Structure prediction request, 189 residues.
Amino acid sequence: MASTLQAIDLHTGLENILITEDALQARVSELGREIGAFYADRHPLLIGVLTGGFMFMADLSRSMAVPLRIDFMAVSSYGNATSTSGVVRILKDLDRSIEGRHILIVEDIIDSGLTLNYLIEVLRGRKPADVRIVALLKKKRDRPVAVEADWVGFEIPDAFVVGYGLDYAGKYRNLPFIAVCAPDLSETA
Ligand code: 5GP
Prediction:
C-alpha cells in the first residue's frame, strides 16, 4: 500500500504497523453495522473521549445507520508519559444532560481500564437509560480493575501504540493506521 509506506517514511519513531488502514476501516465498518443494528430505534447518544477517540468516532458514527447524537468529553490520565498515572480529571464535560438517554461511550483504547471505569461511574450517576461501551483497542494485560466493554475492535499486545487518533507527545494522530512506537521514544518523537 503506497500511501501507508510513504506515511511511515515521514514518521520516524515508529517500530511497525500493527493494524493497517484497510483492516481498521473494515473492522470499524463492521462494528458500526453491528452496533447500529443493536440500537435500531433506540436513538443512542455517542460520547467520544477526546482527543484519541476523535477518528474512531468519525468513522464509527458514519457506519451506524441509525439516528444518533454525538457529544465529547475530555479527560486527562497521561500527560506525556507512556504509563498510566491512575489520576483522571474531567477537562471538558458534556454539553447536555444524559438523563434517560441510551449512552454509548466511544473509547480509543483500554489500557489499565481506570479511565473507562471512572467515566462509567460518572455517567451512570447522571441517570441515563443505559450505558454501553465500544473500545477500538484493548491491550492484553493484567488489570487492577475488571473492565466491561460491550464491543472491542481489536485486542492488541501490551505495547505503546499511536495513529488513528492516538498520539505520543501530540504527534502521530493523523496516521490512518495503528503503529507501535519505537522503544526509545524520547529520541524519536
Ligand atoms: P487507561 O486508563 O485504560 O490506562 O488509559 C486510557 C487512556 O490512556 C486512553 O484513552 C489513551 O488516551 C491513553 N493510552 C493508553 N494506552 C495508550 C497507548 O498505547 N497509546 C496511546 N497513544 N495512548 C494510550
Remarks:
- The two ends are 24 Å apart (CA to CA).
- The chain has one domain: 22-156.
- The beta strands are 14-19, 44-50, 69-76, 89-92, 102-110, 130-139, 151-156, 161-162, 178-181.
- The chain is about 30% helix and 30% strand.
